[in-house]
Amino acid sequence: MTTKPTARTAAAAAVLAIAAAFAVGCSHAKQAGSAVSGAAGAGARAGAPYGAASGTSEAVSGPPALVGSPTTMNVPGVGNVTLDAATAVKYDQLGDEAVLGPPTSQPEKVGDGTAQAFAKGTIYSSPSTDAYLVRGEILRVYLAQGGPTGALGFPTNDEYQIAGGPDFVKGGWRSDFQNGSISWINQGDAVFKATVTQQ
């Protein structure tokens, strides 16, 4: 004897079908997200101080394969700040406000590019180099050297660790620029010294 499905049975079947479709969709989205995260993580490890780059002395320079659009942020005490596309992508890539803090000023035109100061560093962007972060003592020395319009030019990568990092004697951080580099190196006994190398 055949029984006709009741309205309740049909509704339950419909709910199960929707739940299954949602689970499959989430699974595909998660896999796609993992692929994107892996690519972004590899980029971060290549030349940034965030992630597994610790202790490496290699850096990858050149514009990353990322695209974006200008982003406007309303910052208390500063007003509306518009980050150019390259700066907006870099800010997001490095962890935005959680890592760098908010913008502390309007973008500044420097040479053929821009400088955007944040609470914990400055992102420099130019058509020939793309956008990179300079921060800490290296930023202080870089500005003393004239910044991007000085002899070193624009940065060509994010700061990275050298010789095992700052916990080791002769280890520390380094940033590369169009015409040289700046290193902040542990001399021992927690004394650090800047070294500026021009090409």
Structure description:
The structure is a single chain. This protein has 199 residues and is of the alpha+beta class. The protein has a domain at 71-198. Helices cover 32% and strands 28% of the residues. It has helices at 7-47, 85-93, 96-100, 136-144; strands at 71-75, 79-83, 108-110, 113-118, 121-126, 130-134, 160-162, 172-177, 180-188, 191-198. The chain has a four-stranded antiparallel sheet. Strand 4 (113-118) and strand 5 (121-126) form a beta hairpin.
Features:
4-stranded antiparallel sheet; 4 helices; 10 strands; 32% helix; disordered N terminus
Q: What structural category characterises the helix and strand content?
A: alpha+beta
**Gross morphology:** globular
- Portion of residues in beta strands equals 25-35%
Helical content stands at 25-40%
H and E order: HEEHHEEEEHEEEE
Mean pLDDT: 74
Which residue ranges are poorly predicted, with pLDDT under 50 across at least 5 consecutive positions? 1-66
Give a quick account of the main beta sheet: strands, pairing sense, barrel closure: 4 strands, antiparallel
In total, how many beta strands? Answer: 10
Whole-Å distance between the termini?
Answer: 90 Å
